[in-house]
Amino acid sequence: MEGDDNNNYTRPLLTPPQPNSSAAVFTTESHDIPPITTPRIFGREFLLESKKLWYLAGPAIFTSVCQYSLGAITQLFAGHVGTLELAAVSVENSVIAGFCFGIMLGMGSALETLCGQAFGAGQLSMLGIYMQRSWVILNTTCLILCLLYVFAKPLLNFIGQTASISKAAGEFAVWMIPQLFAYAMNFPIQKFLQAQSKIMVMAWIAAAALVMHLLLSWLLMLRLGWGLVGAAVVLNGSWWFIVVAQLVYILSGTCGEAWSGFSIKAFENLWGFVRLSLASAVMLCLEMWYFMALILFAGYLKNAEVSVDALSICMNILGWTVMVSIGMNAAVSVRVSNELGASHPRAAKFSLVVAVVTSFILGVVMSLLLIIFRKQYPSLFSNDSEVKELVMELTPMLAFCIIINNVQPVLSGVAVGAGWQSLVAYVNIACYYLFGVPLGLILGYVFDFGVKGIWSGMLTGTVVQTCVLFIIVYRTDWNKEASLAEERIKKWGGHEDSKSNGVAAQQS
Length: 508
Hints:
- The protein is mostly helical and 508 residues long.
- The protein has 2 domains: 59-268, no CATH class; 280-490, no CATH class.
- The protein has 16 helices and 2 strands.
- Strands 1-2 form a two-stranded antiparallel sheet.
- The protein is globular and about 60 Å long.
- It is found in: Membrane.
- Keywords: Membrane, Transmembrane, Transmembrane helix.
- InterPro entries: MATE_euk, MATE_fam.
- The chain crosses the membrane at residues 53-74, 94-114, 135-152, 172-189, 201-220, 226-251, 272-298, 310-332, 352-374, 394-416, 423-447, 453-474.
- Residues 1-24 are annotated as: Disordered.
């Protein structure tokens, strides 16, 4: 809105939570933010945007940590049952469920674009329809992915697992099929709630599930001696508890116009929806599998056991820190999609700036803590002196990786919020697999730099990808993106006459 000045600018409002609401909801009944021309305006808008981001990011981070911990707790108790049981749960979680988790989360992320932009434009009735379309597509995909669970035993044998581990993990995988369908229901629900800034309800449900999971895992796996059967019952039950609790919240009427019941429209425009879902899945999975490949490559080095152990410790720490960036990713995706949907291009761009600065600072703080305690923290994971020494040597690289991986998901979140999934998928293929992986293999094997060489090369690919995303974002015409958001809403079933009263989409 080039004609706006500070006198007729209306600051975005934060409406207090209503009795039935579990989160603060930011209204779109405002003009775009004013041009940032002075440090005072920058400071004021930075503070306002930070509050909006953290209302979303804080509970989102907590939810991610709780859900990430479900599998970790199961592995912890499996370790007290027996060595074979621990190996079976670990392999199923990391190989079979981990692979499917990435696909389901990626496909569900398509709703971050559609629901976020529809909410920002006031097309509230479309949110429920989008969620139902995603359920149809993800559950259909699950029917195909079930084959991985059914044939897990021969698959694990094929990739080199021992016969005993393959048999135990294969049986456990079949028992975990209900979890796969819980993924298919859960991720669309999460994106549906995130788009409306209803994050706190997800956090409370995840916390309740974590407590229940901890108690039942102890009771069934250890106290009653159910072993792997108990692990499957509890893990499936915890994920379905999350799904059912969130559905009860939605069906109770707390989402207003966003949920108007089941509709036949869920089966319309499915092919276009599938393409966007697949693009989201490819984009996310290429990122998730990239660092999984790092451990795989380390297994072929001369001192493979020490290298794999040290890298596993580093990846474990990186996994926990990534929960922070995932929360910020979800927050900035919602903010950007909401503002583009409301035709607020300057607000969308500034939300990106605030998220990148905040994530960078968080990454620096976490990295400094690791460097300060680099001689102490390896002892928490291993008693082997060689492993601890290698972890200490890798700590500076891990610290740098944490900083990069705190900023990069924010840019990916912007890409999801703006609907650039296909573009970023191509960027990921080029930077990660055509550049990063070959460079890592050359440094690690040809130049004999070992695990540090492999990680250095692959980390360089991440840096290049982050730089490319920066360039794309910097050159983006945000006014055009706001117009595209309106067209996207119309394409997927929204109509001008269905906008909520009082939602004014200001044109630039």
